[in-house]
Specification:
With 238 residues, the chain is α/β, with parallel strands linked by helices. It is built from nine helices and twelve strands. Strands 2-1-3-4-5 form a five-stranded parallel beta sheet, with helices on both faces. The chain has a four-stranded antiparallel beta sheet with strand order 6-7-8-9, covered by helices on one side. The termini are far apart.
Length: 238
Amino acid sequence: MANQRILAVDDEEHILELIEYNLVKNGFSVTTVSSGEEALALLEKEPFDLVLLDIMMEGMGGIEVLKRIRNQKETKDMPVILLTARGEEIDKVLGLEMGADDYMAKPFGVHELAARIKAVLRRSQRTTAEEEREHKDSVHAGRLTIDKETREAMVDGKPLDLALKEFELLYLLVKNKGFVFSRDQALEQVWGYDYFGETRTVDVHIRNIRKKLEEKGMNPDCIKTVRGVGYKFQQEES
């Protein structure tokens, strides 16, 4: 099997050199670029398995690059790990809302970086058997329909535009209507047991899902917060 291809995007040359040296040692094929514009141009021409994306760059910043990646059919489900400077809390949360799979704060340890990349890739490259099993499932809750096979969520027959992890989280909650998932359980089910992130990741995605449901005329409180525990889906009253 060919080495998995990583695209590293950062405008600091020494960081790119550090990333490339250590990821190649871990068996990855690494391409580096120093701007968001270069990254997007390359993604149009070549396939990659994962993107490492710095948030703060000259010119086009990482958040805008991530937005464009998620808006393109060919790359919308591509795993993206954000590289953030300490203190960039707002950008980090915004990145998660835009569909980033994980983030790492600089300065980071190269061993942890390699471990996180492997964990994200394992989650994104599930076996065909697992996909077929999951694809058999579709769930309904009042005006909401979620089809695992086509990866479509619909409200009154109209598409609900969800990022990959938003879709999987909503599917989990709707499929298990009335069951309360703790944040840790949601992380395990949607992001995987080896996820390195924080439980706030779940809160960010829930907030984003509620906003999108409300835009479609649904009551966002159909996703209930159970204080001190987590979240559950409760079907709207007729």
